[in-house]
Amino acid sequence: MELVKPAFGLTFWMVLGFLIVLFLLTKFAWKPILKALQERENSIEDALNAAKKAKAEIEGLKSDNEKLLAEARQERDQILKEARITKDNIINEARNKATVEADRLLALAREGIHNEKMAAITDLKNQVALLSVEIAEKVMKQQLANDDKQKALVADLLKGVKMN
Fold this sequence. Notes:
Elements: H1 8-143, H2 147-160
């Protein structure tokens, strides 16, 4: 049983050694260990705060990015709308100009056709008048070749003339 019970001297020296080690650890090692632990705790806390700030910044950037995308989409839609309006205006303007030009050309063509028609009618009238004169001349030559026929014609013409 003596093996289970330590002797007083052994216990004394063990307690004295423990106290010396405890004193030395408290004096020299305890403060640097606590300081290192505190620094470690502070650095972990700072890292967590930095991560929270980074997360908040990322959320802010994400929302800013979404706003910019929405603005860009809206601006794109506005530009496309303006482009469509401009295209429609250009097409309408070109259509109107083409219509005006077509009407002008049509009026010129009608005027040209009318002038040609009038010239043809005038020419036809002149030819008919010439032919009528030639025919009348030939008929008169045949009719008036005889003196009796001349006298009868003059008498008929005089009957048709009324005197005032």
